């Protein structure tokens, strides 16, 4: 028998990692399809990235609930590879905060799955302390935690959430999904954000949410994403430590995300275009490094330029920087926000000036849309 000291010395000499990095979901009872999805996300991130869009099938600029429509499809001939949805403000209502009917959402989630695309969920939950919305900054997290005055009300919302997620079935199979709760928490604009919550209580909220869905409700078709906001993240000093503010731990997170609207051409910002481009790359290198060190997957969980006012935005701002820094940037997807109307939209729509550039973006071998995916729920079979 070799002594443990000798093993450590040998490991150090030959650089053998003492802890093997696991690529298994945090849920050790995750379904086979969910495990395969995570494996495939790792693989995709090393080869390129998927394009995602919020509420893609629900509405677009000038239309709502029209069967088979999608502004992305009408611009490039294929649906996105990732479909973003939000289950706020409260699941005891018929529709979400952006008037997407939950019944329809269920149908579209299934359709995305059947097409071989992936569904991801955020949760703009109302402030249960005041009855206000997510942007009501009145501290509430303390009330939601065990022993708090709104704990029961919170558990009721989690029960409804679990019911919703549990209803995502295709035949006997549960449709694997990526859940991204309590996003942008390092900003102060949501009641669960920094300034309105202590770091300890934020972590407790995140852990309680995951534990409840996984252990109490026994949902095993979920992967979990963590997604701070880039605007409140200092990239110059100890960025890693900065990023990990509120990190609930490696046992609670599968995906190392970031939301970044500030480095992608927003006008009137303080930073020059060069500075933004530099910071954009740095932010993606940062999440890639953290994800690689932890054996997790990185993703740009939200981004976009409102109105897509720069016609080469997709290639120049998103694709080229990723391409130029391939060895240091590995992200599984890039998701742009919703197409609400002709000013508040983040993807092009037919006849928008950015369509030709979006077509180049889609045609590039680094980007994956629905038509490039085969079966992301089967190991090694994600891409065509
Ligand atoms: C914001 C805007 C709002 C919307 C919210 C949640 O960025 O798009 O109109 O209600 O996201 O989707």
Describe the structure.
With 384 residues, the protein is an alpha/beta fold. It has one domain (4-372): Glycosidases (TIM Barrel, Alpha-Beta Barrel), CATH 3.20.20. The chain has eleven helices and 13 strands. The protein has helices spanning 4-14, 32-47, 71-76, 102-115, 141-144, 151-166, 199-216, 239-243, 273-294, 313-324, 355-363, and strands at residues 49-54, 59-60, 63-64, 82-86, 118-122, 169-170, 173-174, 177-179, 222-226, 255-260, 297-303, 333-336, 367-368. Strands 1-4-5-8-9-10-11-12 form an eight-stranded parallel β-barrel. Strands 2-3 form a two-stranded antiparallel sheet. Helix 10 (313-324) runs parallel beside helix 11. The longest helix is centred in the last third of the chain and has 22 residues, at 273-294. It is globular. Bound molecules: beta-D-mannopyranose. The site of beta-D-mannopyranose has 7 residues, from loops.
Architecture blueprint of SSEs:
Layout: H1 4-14, H2 32-47, E1 49-54, E2 59-60, E3 63-64, H3 71-76, E4 82-86, H4 102-115, E5 118-122, H5 141-144, H6 151-166, E6 169-170, E7 173-174, E8 177-179, H7 199-216, E9 222-226, H8 239-243, E10 255-260, H9 273-294, E11 297-303, H10 313-324, E12 333-336, H11 355-363, E13 367-368
Parallel strand pairs: 1-4, 1-12, 1-13, 4-5, 5-8, 8-9, 9-10, 10-11, 11-12
Antiparallel strand pairs: 2-3, 6-7
Helix pairs in contact: 10-11
The structure holds beta-D-mannopyranose.
Residues 86, 97-98, 124, 337-338, 340 line the site of beta-D-mannopyranose.
């Amino acid at each position: 028998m070799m002594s443990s000291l000798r093993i450590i010395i040998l490991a150090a000499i030959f650089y053998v990692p003492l802890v093997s990095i696991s690529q298994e979901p945090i849920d050790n009872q995750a379904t086979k399809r969910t495990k395969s999805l995570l494996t495939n996300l790792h693989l995709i991130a090393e080869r390129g990235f998927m394009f995602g869009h919020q509420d893609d099938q629900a509405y677009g600029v000038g239309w709502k609930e029209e069967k088979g429509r999608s502004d992305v499809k009408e611009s490039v001939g294929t649906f996105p590879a990732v479909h973003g949805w939000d289950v706020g403000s409260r699941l005891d209502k018929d529709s979400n905060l952006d008037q997407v009917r939950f019944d329809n959402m269920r149908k579209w989630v299934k359709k995305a799955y059947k097409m071989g695309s992936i569904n991801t969920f955020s949760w703009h939950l109302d402030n249960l302390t005041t009855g206000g919305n997510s942007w009501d900054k009145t501290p509430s997290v303390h009330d939601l935690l065990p022993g708090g005055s709104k704990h029961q009300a919170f558990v009721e919302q989690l029960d409804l959430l679990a019911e919703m997620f549990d209803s995502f079935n295709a035949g006997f199979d549960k449709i694997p999904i990526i859940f991204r709760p309590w996003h942008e928490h390092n900003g102060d604009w949501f009641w669960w954000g920094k300034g309105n919550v202590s770091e300890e209580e934020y972590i407790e909220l995140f852990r309680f949410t995951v534990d409840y869905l996984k252990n109490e409700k026994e949902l095993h078709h979920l992967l979990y994403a963590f997604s701070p906001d880039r605007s409140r993240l200092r990239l110059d000093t100890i960025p890693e430590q900065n990023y990990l503010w509120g990190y609930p731990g490696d046992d609670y997170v599968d995906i190392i995300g970031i939301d970044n609207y500030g480095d992608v051409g927003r006008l009137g910002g303080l930073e020059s275009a060069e500075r933004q481009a530099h910071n954009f790359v740095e932010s993606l290198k940062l999440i890639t490094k953290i994800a690689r060190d932890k054996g997790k997957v990185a993703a740009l969980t939200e981004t976009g330029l409102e109105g897509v006012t720069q016609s080469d935005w997709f290639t120049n701002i998103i694709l080229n920087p990723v391409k130029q820094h391939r060895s240091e940037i590995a992200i599984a997807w890039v998701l742009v926000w919703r197409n609400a109307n002709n000013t508040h939209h983040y993807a092009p729509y037919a006849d928008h000036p950015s369509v030709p550039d979006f077509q180049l973006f889609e045609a590039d071998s680094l980007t994956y849309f629905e038509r490039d995916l085969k079966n992301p729920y089967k190991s090694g079979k994600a891409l065509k």
